[in-house]
Predict the structure.
Amino acid sequence: MVDYLSNALWTDDEIAFRKEVQEFCAKEIAPIADKIDKGPFPRELLSKIGKVGYMGVHHDRSVGGTERGLSYEIIVAEEISAVNGGLDMARMASTTLYGMPVARFGTAEQKKKYLEPVVIGEKIGCIGITEPDVGSDTAGMKTRAEKDGDDWILNGEKRFITNGSQADYMCAFAITDPTVHSKNGMSAFIVDTKSDGFSVVQDHELLGMKSARVSWLKFEDMRVPSDMLLGKLGEGFHILMDELDSERTAIAGEAIGYARTPYEIAVKYSTERHQFGRPIRAFEGVSFKIADMAMKLEAGRALTLTAARMYDRGENITKQASIAKLFTTEAAVQITNDALQILGGMGYTTDYPIERFLRDARLMTIGGGTAEILRFLIQREVFKEFFPQ
Ligand SMILES: Cc1cc2nc3c(=O)[nH]c(=O)nc-3n(C[C@H](O)[C@H](O)[C@H](O)COP(=O)(O)OP(=O)(O)OC[C@H]3O[C@@H](n4cnc5c(N)ncnc54)[C@H](O)[C@@H]3O)c2cc1C
């Protein structure tokens, strides 16, 4: 398999790893990529992905990972998304969105019990932030956790939770002290979805990402033992902000994947399809679109790798992760749309998977921080750099 995007910034080991993941995807996922778009993804496939190690590249060896870092997670995210976006959304929700808060803030016991089974693909995780009344403004969270003896009692609703109806464990955020700002009054919990009081209201019908399941959930007097508190009491908002940095970088990796396959199809089609006695690539209206796609893919990959490298060095990546996610997700929407245009009427059929990638890509200027919120965050970081307090 040819990797036509520049490899200048990647190590030899990362390049070899990408080839390995591409071979796995070609063998195990590509043959069923259209079929699983009807959803839900087969649980055994996620298990297989865990067994070959692609859930754990950024997790410690002590929990079954390989400790290679986020630069490897973005390779996995790109390669699986280049075949089926919904499947990678499910994988990533489990190992990164759920997995990273547990990895970075959990106790050794919590990691052994609630992270290792997810990293090796035996269990599925999800993250519960969004609520019916709370989207971008996460500090306005309504879900409450009240102390009752040694336990916490959770009440509230979570909406749009990827893997919600499939997950064994959730990293759930709730207000533990409503008398102070959420920055200090929010806490994070590991929740066992088999607990009494946990229910699935419904799986949402989605435009794309159809091989994943995204759910509306309810906690009704759900008892959570106090040893399931993640991090310190009142540390939830900090855990949430920390999680979003790795999530946004990994989503940027996925976005390159959604865009790459439609781009490849468009390049080939523009050579094969003839109109007015010439291949359509001979028309600048077509070939300049391809030039723009190539430019956005190269730039997006470099931005994403920059954020991942900085994360792996322990640096603050709020600005870089936001830039990478914003650029790649907007580029993915443009690239998938332009690829569809290059195929004309054929692009609008299901004979080619471009319509599927376009539907999948469309989510990502919304999920994990909308494009508007990311622009807000980027400018805030810029002004902090120019005018430190
Ligand atoms: C398929 C899918 C999967 C998801 N998976 C998860 C998951 O696993 N876990 C989870 O917790 N959440 C998940 N989400 C939720 C997702 O993160 C939210 O949808 C997203 O953060 C936006 O929140 P919202 O939909 O409530 O939009 P709102 O916050 O209501 O925003 C609506 C519009 O207003 C704009 N807006 C809001 N505030 C501002 C502002 N200050 N300035 C400018 N514009 C603004 C937004 O950009 C947007 O265009 C998922 C969502 C979807 C659709």
In short: The chain has a mean pLDDT of 97. The first strand starts at residue 125 and ends at 128. The CA atoms of residues 63 and 293 lie 39 Å apart. The pocket of flavin-adenine dinucleotide is lined by residues 93, 97, 126-130, 135-136, 160-162, 206, 209, 214, 363, 366-368, 370, 372-373, 376 (CB under 6 Å).
